[in-house]
Amino acid sequence: MTLPAFARRPYHRALRALLPLFGLDFGWYEAFHTKWPYALPAVEAWLQHARPRSRSRRFFAAYPLERFARPGDTVLDIGANIGAVSTHLLRLGYVVHAYEPDARCAEFLRRRFARIDPSRFRLHHQAVSNYTGVATLYRGTRTTESSSILEHKPGTEQAAGYQVTVRSIGDVLDSVEHASLILMDVEGAEYAILNEMLTPRNRDKFGLCIAESHARKIPGLEAEHGRVLEAVERLGMQDRVLLDWH
Questions:
Q1: For residue 64, how far is the Cα from the chain centroid?
Q2: Given this model, what pLDDT does residue 171 score?
Q3: At residue 190, does pLDDT exceed 80?
Q4: pLDDT (tens digit, 9 = 90+) per residue, 96-137?
Q5: What residues contact residue 162 under an 8 Å CB cut-off, 6+ apart?
Q6: Which residues contact 136 (CB under 8 A, 6 or more apart)?
Q7: Torsion-angle region of residue 177: left (phi > 0), alpha (psi -120 to 50) or beta?
Q8: Which whole number is the average pLDDT over 159-179?
Q9: What is the 3-state secondary structure (H, E, C) of the chain?
Q10: Residues 189, 169: contact at Cβ < 8 Å?
């Protein structure tokens, strides 16, 4: 929202007074102001009902998730951000494991899903990759959706990175035994995860994986994207690993 200078102070005063009614503080607003109506669960539900052509509704209409996941199945939301996808997965009756390395988003997810039965939603304040350890998370310059552990990713603050815990996708899959569905949006870091998922050790531990690929947006990833597609085709997994989210 762009306001004239004279209106910003009273507007922010009003927000400082009103946000606590939703269990939020002004720092939360500063981090999520570009999409805060969608981040309030009740408001988000109303907006999605009122706007049936919203991106998330189109997404779930486009993919036959019921082929791979039934109510009660375990699914992974890798790069959960503020929980828009997790919200839909919960509504479909799945057991959701959400992985999010950004501390601001993780805290928001804790508040957002505090009333959900822990047996149905589990938050992991971690990044996911092909190794277990630590990495630098580079925050997005405009929104939290742009944050990434990929070094030199456009749209991130390279000087403002901080250390986050990383868990290997192999360990993640071992911990849940089998993930019927994996949804992944990790801003360019998806190829390391996908390569590990396609190894003999891991490729039978998940059903359907739908990932947003960033090769067209991030220079230098085109070759890696091609290698992953070749591996998917060679293994005959074209109907299980889809790189066309969004």
A1: 20
A2: 98
A3: yes
A4: 999 999 988 898 888 888 889 999 999 999 999 999 999 999
A5: 136, 137
A6: 149, 151, 161, 162, 163, 164
A7: left
A8: 95
A9: CCCCHHHHHHHHHHHHHHHHHHCCCHHHHHHHHHHHHHHCHHHHHHHHHHCCCCHHHHHHHHCCHHHCCCCCCEEEEECCCCCHHHHHHHHCCCEEEEECCCHHHHHHHHHHCCCCCCCCEEEECCEEECCCEEEEEECECCCHHHCECCCCCCCECHHHCEEEEEEEHHHHHHHHCCEEEEEECCCCCHHHHHHHHCCCCCCCCEEEEEEECCCCCCCCCHHHHHHHHHHHHHCCCCCCEECECC
A10: no
How confident is the model at residue 195, as a pLDDT?
A: 97
- Specify the long-range contacts of residues 117-123, CB closer than 8 Å, at least 24 apart: 119/95, 120/90, 120/95, 120/96, 121/86, 121/90, 121/95, 121/96, 122/95, 122/96, 122/97, 122/98, 123/80, 123/98
Instruction: Say how many residues make up the chain.
Output: 246
55 has pLDDT over 70: no
